[in-house]
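Supplementary Methods, section 5.1.

A reviewer requested that the exact input to the structure prediction be made available. We therefore reproduce it here, unchanged from the version used in the analyses.
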Amino acid sequence: MRDLAVAGARPVFWYLGAYLLTVVAAFALTTYVIAGVNRLGLPRPTPAWIGWAINVVPPLACGAAAYGLLARWLLGHGATAATAAAHFSRASPLYVVACLLAAVLHGGRRLNDFGLLLQLVLWLGLVAVGGITADALVCWAAKR
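The structure derived from this sequence is encoded token-by-token as follows.
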């Protein structure tokens, strides 16, 4: 941790700040993908798998890319270790967000007007899941 130029920086705070930036990027990318698919003029109703794909892949990819790069950077600068304990410490904000949003999804599943909120909560949660997965994979690869 002493190699980082920012004195007193802790990986958990880096991860929390990165989450906010990654959510903005994921919302922008997902909105762009949805607009692009709408311009294709696909027959209506659009198949369900297309709806799921355009709502799942962009936020998951944004989370994975951002946190994969951040984990690699932090490991490369000696700011954190490639251990399971360090992974859970770094990614703890992501685990909290994912669990809270899973509870919101579970609680709102029976509401008739939960559609748009479901979409937004899903995007937020998938950024966290992508980040958790990427961090774990980078940690695993660094130990090999």
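Residues 11-143 form one domain. These observations are discussed further in the main text.
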